[in-house]
Amino acid sequence: MNLDMREPMSDTLGVLETAALLRELTAGLIAVTDFDEALRELVRIARDAVPEVASCGFTALRAGEPAGVAASDPERAELDDLRHGPDTPALAAIHRRDMVTAPDLDRETRWPGWTDRARALGVHGVISAPVDVDEQVIGAINLYAAAPDVLTTRHQLTAMLLAEHAGLLLAAVRDRERQAARAGQLDAALLEEGVVGQAIGVIMTQRGCPAPDALAVLRSAASSLDIPLREVAERLVLTVSRPRDN
Length: 246
Known about the structure:
The chain is built from 8 helices and 5 strands; from the N terminus they run ααββαβαββαααα.
């Protein structure tokens, strides 16, 4: 290979670092079912994995209204919180649907109130990248530097890839969260429903277990027998209610 055609070693390392970040992010969020927990994991992983980033935050909007924040360092959480004022790089990134960068806050004039608070908290550079989650939730991931002019174009590329990947993972978390809520509602309905509720009561009495565990036993039996849950319940109730021969 011609040496002039080879990528610089720093670029190669940057690609490997980004790949490792996305892999760790996927592993950290793949089974999470709580959106707030997912945001906390996201900002922690980003802070620890991206060089020169001192802290990381996430600003979320739901239906256009502030819907909470996550911060890798709680003392800097106000920088992501729109309740302290909407004039922030995160909201600018969300509104523009494009990445916003400010490598040196000493030279920054776009968000004077926010910039003063950031510098007082030891933040001197920021990259905010918009994150599309689903039709209701959008946000921005914010990478903060403790020194000016350390956030480079490589950090911008990392932020862009991180935002895109995080959007997909967070959308999946939201789906799992909704599915868990629907399952919880279904379980509550089943616990109160006629013959299924009776069957659950029978199992609770026989096994000395709580209602959710009894429902799980009933579901497992239905799956093993490949018959509807209600039919399993009816058979169980009929069996225990049938008079025994003396």
